[in-house]
Amino acid sequence: MSVNHSPGVNPMEQREIATFVDYNYWANHKVIDAAVALTTEQFLAPGRLSFGSVRGTLLHVLFAEDTWRQRIESAGQRSQLQGADFPDAAALRAHWATEEAALRRLVRGATPERLAAPISYTSLDGSARSTPMWQILLHVVNHGTQFRGEAGVLLTELGHSPGDLDFIQYVRTRG
Question: What is the CATH topology of the domain spanning 14-174?
């Protein structure tokens, strides 16, 4: 069954969106903390998943967060992040802290009207698109969940499991 929300209708409140964004960064921190324990060789080693290495997979998540945030902020840019900029997980963590702060500021300042408003952008395939901000933010979280899971597989195989990344675990840790 497809749910089609009318333009301007936001079934989610800022508080709910902020909770999902908090979860996103809680889970990101767990994965990045595990990645920091890797040797450089392990961090860069080719894997069998979508983006190869742990670096490639985590960079994909960061690239997506950066690109979507820029679209929301009407910067019209896509991320310019390159793998060579991140020789190890510590470098990735440092850049991600800046991205996290920017996205959290954006969410904190979002009014109900802004969350419901369509964001117009050009997709990576060159198509003109328009999506309500709240749907973009949920996509960022959901996308991160998928690829953190892939990174978690690689990290676990390398002996550095990030542990349970489920939303319910996040909720339980918050009491």
Answer: Four Helix Bundle (Hemerythrin (Met), subunit A) (1.20.120)
Q: Under a CB-based contact definition with an 8 Å cutoff, are residues 146 and 57 in contact?
A: no
Q: Look over the chain and give the mean of its residue pLDDT values, rounded to a whole number.
A: 90
Question: Domain boundaries in the chain?
Answer: 14-174
Q: What is the DSSP string of the chain?
A: ----PPTT--SS-HHHHHHHHHHHHHHHHHHHHHHHTS-HHHHHS--SBTTBSHHHHHHHHHHHHHHHHHHHTT--------GGG-SSHHHHHHHHHHHHHHHHHHHHT--HHHHHSEEEEE-TTS-EEEEEHHHHHHHHHHHHHHHHHHHHHHHHHTT-------HHHHHHHH-
pTM of the predicted structure, to 2 decimals:
0.89
Those residues with Cβ within 8 angstroms of residue 91's Cβ, 6 or more apart along the chain or in another chain:
85
pLDDT value of position 1 = 44
Question: What pLDDT digit, counting tens, does each position of 64-112 carry?
Answer: 999 999 999 986 666 678 888 899 999 999 999 999 999 999 999 999 9
**13-39, pLDDT tens digit by residue?**
889 999 999 999 999 999 999 999 999
